[in-house]
Amino acid sequence: MESLIGLVNKIQRACTVLGDHGGEGMSLWEALPSVAVVGGQSSGKSSVLESVVGRDFLPRGSGIVTRRPLVLQLHKVEGGSEYAEFLHAPRKRFSDFAAVRQEISDETDRVTGKSKQISNHPIQLSIYSPNVVNLTLIDLPGLTKVAVEGQPETIVQDIEHMVRSYVEKPNCIILAISPANQDIATSDAIKLAREVDPSGERTFGVLTKLDLMDKGTSAIDVLEGRSYRLQHPWVGIVNRSQADINKNVDMIAARRKEQEYFESSPEYGHLAHKMGSEYLAKLLSEHLEIVIRQRIPSIIALINKTIDELNAELDRIGRPIGTDGGAQLYTILDMCRAFDRVFREHLDGGRAGGHKIYGVFDHQLPAALKKLPLDRHLSPSNVKRVVTEADGYQPHLIAPEQGYRRLIDGSLGYFKGPAEACVDAVHIVLKELVRKSLIETQELKRFPTLQSDIAAASNEALEKFRDESRKTVIRLVDQESSYLTVEFFRKLQNEPDKTQEKNPDKNPNPQAPNAERYTEVHFRRIGSNVSGYINMVCETLRSSIPKAVVHCQVREARRSLLNHFYAQIGRKEKEQLGKMLDEDPSLMEKRETLAKRLELYKSARDDIDAVAWK
Ligand code: GDP
Ligand code: MG
Predict the structure, then answer these.
(1) Which ligand is nearest to the CA of 140?
(2) What 3-state class would DSSP assign to 35?
(3) Is the same domain home to 202 and 267?
(4) Which residues does the UniProt record annotate as the domain GED (predicted)?
């Protein structure tokens, strides 16, 4: 039995550590039973708790002393000395219970201020002692009827609301404290308990101050359940009076005195074995065990549900990665491959973006070629200038060989611009695809450092491919200058002179070619010949430049974008690899919290599993 309740204490404690005060939604906290003390102000709630515990430690006095819920966990330990521990000050052991009382009151003030305000936030206190049974008890502020000086008007409802929030939970066992020197019909405790637990199956009626009853009156009708019937038997209690407290009557003596009171009482003597604080503690403990046993299946179901949720969340944000070099390298390569896959999908199709490269070849390049200032370069006046310059002091005799070469070289020079622009345009498209792919690679999201490392490596590789591509397309153009297509000019010689036919007026003497050698018609014909040749070359380049660009940039990017990067990480030390896998600190923190929660729930499940079959 004690293992069972000890277990409950453990789980409840875990829940409180996790910030799980039974706020919103169904929580583990709510699935577990607890015992709350309810009653009017000064009805003896704190005194009952103290005598169940067997220790003086709760702040007492007149007026509103208990202003925050106190969650009190009793842990029975075998032998050793007694001590208390607060959740808000872990590892600080209190063996002086007067100091515990002081700490409760200080901690109350810390949250509520020194006013008579109240707070819903519980103080959690554990007591380890050989003299207690395992129990979780909750001390609550007393129900009042009017707001006293210094309290807000709403205090009466505020307290009732807070108390209700604890006792209305179906797993809360209610210790309804009523003073025997008041009519039971006026008991605030019974009134509230009846509201939240109409069947009375989780309400224990406790009658205090039996010793303070008027002479000649008796509580026997209440104690035997005739005045107000409850599912469970009433328990009568005699706590220490204020005078006893002032005289520092200790708890052991008080219990002995209480027992003597019942044993020697003419009215209650026959009930002595079912009265008093010790009996109340035993009764509660037995009841808790029954309730917990009933709840084990639903508690396990709740824990399993939470474990599933935590696992799903951990999967979503990514599991922790191994800390050894091999695991790190594996993770990095895995991420790189995932990124590479996305990047290829962009190029090959499946994801948008690759078509933009074709756009460069199909629109941008032809448009740029069309805009070249060839007409100006091959205008009769410029042709004349170039040819004359090439001739030097000796004008050409038949055909201006040098002039043709210069005009062709000059024209070809214009092609370098569009060729390089094509390379650059494709470079920009590829860079954009890298950027998109990095964003779209889900796995990489958690590793911003690795993400930027891959970005840098990819861009560096793309730049290298671009440089190679530039060299190649310039070479294509240069090749055209190095060796001209002779056939083109041979064919020209055999063709009739179209220029002449078109401009008969300007050539009054078609029969005299030598005479027209230095006329505008002559230079116009040269220009037109060169233009014909350049058009032919332009056609060739329009298809060979894209081929070179794809070969040097697109194909390489697809094939070996991260090759250099792979070689680099292969040489890296474990420490450097770890740095690359640096995650967003908030994400790491979140994962750690989740993992911790998961562990707690798992160990709670193991514990419960272990006792469920006992
Ligand atoms: P709470 O406000 O409900 O927590 O009540 P306390 O436990 O602080 O008790 C209020 C006052 O009533 C204190 O002075 C106690 O000594 C006194 N008191 C409580 N129970 C008894 C009892 O059974 N007999 C006597 N004589 N005094 C009691
Ligand atoms: Mg109190």
Answers:
(1) 2
(2) strand
(3) yes
(4) 523-614
